[in-house]
TrEMBL record:
It comes from Trinickia dinghuensis. GO terms for cellular component: cytosol. The gene is rfaE1. Keywords: Kinase, Transferase. This is D-glycero-beta-D-manno-heptose-7-phosphate kinase. The keyword Flavoprotein does not apply. CDD domains: RfaE_like. Residues 1-22 are annotated as: Disordered. PANTHER family: BIFUNCTIONAL PROTEIN HLDE. InterPro entries: PfkB_dom, RfaE_dom_I, Ribokinase-like.
Length: 338
């Protein structure tokens, strides 16, 4: 199935369908296999504990979960890299991990996912963990463990970034505000000077640090934090254009959950792709899938509009899966896979 067409209608219609585009055929596997994407950012381990709840604790009015199964998945920038690799691209990941068990587990999972790892080790860092406790596929609790990398590890990562830059087509910055992108402004400037496209998944309200990026991909809450609440589509367009121009960012892709996504570009147009989800089960990591698909398609030399349409299609698939997940080549292009 092909990705939904981008329309120039000013306002998206939640849940609406769309005609299939005339110009987006399945991209040959070989072409995606030549795409080289470097992901830089904050990595984490998504740890899931699954069990049954049959009673309430006598110590407090909380459920007692009898844990029967544990599952570990890559999170943050590591999940972005896993998504890029799942599509068949050459995905490299530059990040900092601790010298602890979660850090070793991340290394192991990255190896299994086919991601080329460029890791800096910080022995004092507690690798970020997001522990989720679930019963009957419902999340009961999430517990986070985290701190920030040391300055020396981050400087070593910046030096390694310089060495990796020439061997990648697209640079992707995955910011989860854990400290791994302390030098993001310098990295963007270096990448753009080298003629590379730079995609950013932002965090927080200080977007000055992303100045000069090619494309930024906020969701609605993230964009509101920076430009304020908009009153209409026209107001939104004006605020985005002003922001984009002030930060010298070429394009902004706003992900809008059930309303799909809207691409704002330097030519003044706003192109909307209606949501393509069949059934929404879990939105965890959907933004990772969107930006990873975008990066892979741009590295494979697809036009931006086509890359956005395929990213929208990938998002519609991944929200039907539990937790952080990926979309592979056959899922994205079925029944047109080659």
């Amino acid at each position: 199935m092909r990705a939904p067409e981008l329309s120039k209608e000013p306002a998206p219609q939640a849940g609406s369908g769309a005609a299939r585009p005339a110009g987006i055929a399945a991209v040959p596997r070989e072409r995606l296999g030549q795409a080289r994407v470097l992901i830089v950012g904050d990595v984490m381990l998504d740890r899931y504990w699954f069990g049954d709840v049959n009673r309430i604790s006598p110590e407090a009015p909380v459920p007692v979960v009898h844990v029967q199964r544990q599952e570990d998945r890559l999170g943050g920038a590591a999940n972005v890299a896993r998504n890029a690799a799942a599509l068949g691209a050459n995905a490299g990941l530059l990040c900092v991990v601790g010298g602890d068990e979660p850090g070793e587990r991340i290394v192991e999972l990255l190896k299994d996912s086919g991601v080329a790892t460029h890791l800096e080790r910080d022995p004092e860092l507690s690798t970020t963990i997001k522990l989720r406790v679930l019963s009957r596929q419902q999340q009961l609790l999430r517990v986070d463990f985290e701190n920030t990398p040391a300055h020396e590890a981050l400087l070593a990562g910046l030096a390694r970034f310089d060495a990796l830059l020439a061997s990648h087509d697209v640079i992707l910055m995955s910011d989860y505000a854990k400290g791994g992108l302390t030098h993001v402004t310098q990295m963007i400037a270096k990448a753009r000077a080298a003629g590379k496209s730079v995609l950013v998944d932002p965090k927080g309200d200080d977007w000055e640090r992303y100045r000069g990026a090619t494309l930024i991909t906020p969701n609605r809450a993230e964009l509101r934090e920076v430009v304020g609440q908009w009153k209409s589509e026209a107001d939104l367009h004006a605020r985005v254009d002003a922001l984009r121009a002030s930060l010298e960012i070429d394009a902004l892709l706003l992900t809008r959950s059930e309303e799909g996504m809207t691409l704002f570009t330097a030519d003044g147009e706003a192109l909307t792709a209606p949501a393509d989800a069949r059934e929404v089960y879990d939105v965890s990591g959907a933004g990772d899938t969107v930006i990873a698909t975008l990066a892979v398609m741009l590295a494979a030399k697809l036009p931006l509009v086509d890359a956005v349409a395929l990213a929208n299609r990938a998002a519609g698939i991944v929200v039907g899966k539990l937790g952080t997940a990926t979309v592979d080549y056959d899922e994205l292009f079925a029944p047109n896979a080659r």
